[in-house]
Automatic annotation (TrEMBL):
Alphabetized UniProt keyword annotations: Membrane, Transmembrane, Transmembrane helix
UniProt subcellular location: Membrane
Highest taxon listed in the record's lineage: Bacteria
GO cellular component: plasma membrane
InterPro entries, A to Z: Alkaline_pH_Ca-Antiporter, NaCa_Exmemb
Regions crossing the membrane: 12-33, 39-59, 71-94, 106-127, 139-156, 168-189, 218-236, 256-276, 288-311, 323-339, 346-364
The protein's name in its UniProt record: Ca2+:H+ antiporter
GO molecular function annotation: potassium:proton antiporter activity; sodium:proton antiporter activity
Span of domain Sodium/calcium exchanger membrane region: 39-192, 221-363
Membrane topology, as annotated: Multi-pass membrane protein
Source taxonomy: Bacteria, Pseudomonadati, Pseudomonadota, Alphaproteobacteria, Hyphomicrobiales
Organism: Bradyrhizobium canariense
């Protein structure tokens, strides 16, 4: 969806369809079941849900052009994080408990973004422009935050002694959640105020002087953004039932649900990041990609932790050994990739290979 020119019909049509669909299943008290009618409902639900997510990101982009960078990218990230928390919490805390979903989704987001999305953006940009530049200082802050937050939320739970197994005790989970939120808050202050220049390219500076949306279009996009986010949250329960049924039919591993949720919430940002790389604005691609990973850990884990504690649900966070190896490899490769300020196609291919290994090991562990 383009943020320039008249608003595309899909930007308001999908949120409207999502609200209508939710009203329909609520009034009829519809319960999804694997059947021909159920498959039709699942197809309609997925199309409307994906369209509504894209609509939400479109309206966030319209607002983002008004407030400028890096606030615009931050708004996009926060909008997608709201969708992510809703989907994870609904599935994980539903009738069929899935205590590992938050872990699987966060890990999938990190692997998809830091390897799949970053790899494609660098490869596409390298093929088109040979090399691309970005702010090393900003990338280093992203990676430093990711390394610390991923370690204390996804690796450390395997090695604590208060409770056996890959999860924190209530006190540990509360402490880690508070630390995570504080760190993310300080990062936002650094990104938007203290060192804003670390995250802005010359292209973004020029774009800040472009005529932003104002008046009626801005108010309309703000209202439709809120409606889109609410619609996704309301349909999250039905989506969780479709995911459970689909995974049972194809015999998918438990981590499949986490990958599916991650793909749903990352698709709009991925399109925006890829478009930025094609336009030779790799800095915006990095902001979108690494920013979404950071928000996933910094905001999603504490939010899901509060929900799990309130509803007395078990929250498993610790990764298995092979997943820890992939996570460490990802951070080492990312530090080398973003350590010089210039990228080429080989870096992109390396990230894509690690992503392929991740996907393969999900189905062939």
């Amino acid at each position: 969806m383009s943020v320039h020119g008249p608003m595309p019909k899909s930007a308001w049509l999908f949120p409207l369809l999502a609200v209508v669909l939710f009203a329909f299943v609520t009034v009829l008290d519809y319960t999804f079941a694997p059947s021909p009618a159920g498959l039709l409902f699942a197809a309609v639900l997925l199309v409307i849900l994906f369209g509504t997510v894209f609509a939400a990101v479109h309206h966030a982009e319209v607002i983002a052009e008004t407030i400028g960078e890096p606030y615009g990218t931050l708004l996009l990230t926060l909008a997608v994080t709201v969708i992510e928390v809703a989907l994870i919490a609904t599935i994980m805390l539903g009738e069929k408990a899935v205590p590992t979903l938050a872990r699987d989704t966060v890990f999938a987001v990190v692997m998809i973004v830091c390897n799949g999305l970053v790899g494609v953006c660098i490869l596409v940009g390298g093929l088109r422009y040979r090399e691309q530049d970005f702010q090393v200082s900003g990338a280093n802050l992203y990676l430093s935050m990711l390394a610390v937050l991923a370690t204390i939320t996804l690796i450390l739970p395997d090695y604590t002694l208060t409770t056996p197994g890959p999860f924190y005790s209530a006190a540990q989970l509360g402490f880690v959640s508070i630390v995570t939120i504080v760190l993310y808050g300080v990062f936002l202050y650094t990104q938007t105020i203290r060192h804003r220049d670390y995250f802005i390219s010359e292209r973004a500076d020029a774009a800040d002087h472009a005529a932003p949306a104002s008046g009626h279009p801005l108010l309309l996009s703000t209202g439709l953004l809120l409606i889109s986010l609410l619609a996704v949250v309301l349909l999250a329960k039905k989506f969780s039932l479709v995911v459970d049924a689909g995974a049972a039919v194809i015999g998918a591993p438990p981590a499949f649900a986490g990958i599916l949720v991650a793909l749903l919430i990352l698709l709009p940002e991925s399109v925006a990041a890829l478009a930025a790389a094609r336009n030779n604005d790799l800095q915006k691609s990095i902001n979108l990609a690494l920013g979404s990973s950071l928000a996933t850990i910094g905001l999603t884990i504490p939010a899901v932790a509060v929900a799990a504690y309130t509803l007395e649900k078990t929250l498993i966070l610790g990764l298995q050994e092979r997943e820890i190896v992939l996570l460490v490899l990802t951070f080492i490769l990312s530090m080398l990739t973003f350590g010089t300020g210039r990228t080429n196609i080989l870096f992109g291919l390396l990230h894509l290979v690690v992503f392929a290994v991740f996907v393969f090991l999900v189905f062939v562990p």
